[in-house]
Please model this.
Amino acid sequence: MPEAPFVVVGASLAGLRAVESARKAGYSGRLLLVGAEEHLPYDRPPLSKAFLDPGDDPAMPHHRTDDELRALDVELRLGVPATALDTDAREIVLGGEERLCYERLVIATGARARQLPGEQLDGVHTLRTVEDARSIRGALDAGRRMVVVGGGFIGSEVASAARKRDVDVTILEAAPLPLVRAVGEQMAAACADLHARNGTKLRCGVSVTGLEGEGRVEGVALSDGSVLPADLVVVGIGADPVTDWLIASGLHVEDGVVCDETLRAGPEVYAAGDVARWHNALFGRTMRLEHWTSAAEQGAAAARNALAPARATPYSAVPYFWSDWYRDKLQMVGITAADEVTVIGDLDDARWLALYRQDDLLVGTLGLNMPGKIMKYRAMIGWRTAWQDALAFAGR
Model:
């Protein structure tokens, strides 16, 4: 009987990093990577950024070539979703029928985009997969009037791509300001100004009550009674962790797979990436992050800890994300639950920094077009830098 493999479920960034980390740590046994999509692991952030830009059709943004994956000696099971997990028997069900035993498991199934309720009309898109991005790209080439539902980072990036084609764009946001939870109220207003500067209309405090059209979208009905004409609608209202296949697994599932500080979710089971909700000791709180950097770091850490649970080390990190809007780059490190926000520079200019204070510590930094600075602040947050020291550094 063949040995039970080390199985990684989820063939995106976190899953790939888990595979690479296992081999780097010296694991020489069977290694199996399972993915619901048929593609080799590919990079998702470009799908809402450069992939949508005008010009020639972009290449598939694969993380690794066939040859590079073969060098890892990893067995690939692509196009076959995991549908159930039995942690007592150490078995995964693939495609509803096949049973696969595992020695240890890393869950990296990511998240899926939320959709608007009701009938799904043609011309209405979400953005999560490369197929989604290709569909939106084709629609943008033909689009005249576009409505983006949700003023978060995905929606804002899609709107930016549309404006590069001179498409008429309106962003709808149910909250009083977009990105309030991501960057805080004060800086959400500054981010909203970026849309106004680039000709994108922004309507806040309204929600979608329905879509109009016969088979294909023609308008978006709003809670204030108005209807926005639309040839193309992109829905960017967040994503839900892919945990439905874990309902009867015995794992604690609550807005993700709940893990301890080492990313352990259960006996011989670890989780990483968008699906993992873990205790981040650096901030003393539980987090679930949908960020590229966290997925990469957690995938590597989960595999290392799965291979050596007695020597498992906590994954404690400063969150980091970036977003490309129009000609600008927004970058955020840390958290925004702050007692004070201090802006360095002028918010009307093309470059500025915002520092976030909690008690007497620097806990977050948001920057516009400051790529050379932002990672220094990430390190400072990790060092638990005092607020006055952070202000002094900013002044220099």
Q: What stands out?
A: The mean pLDDT is 94.
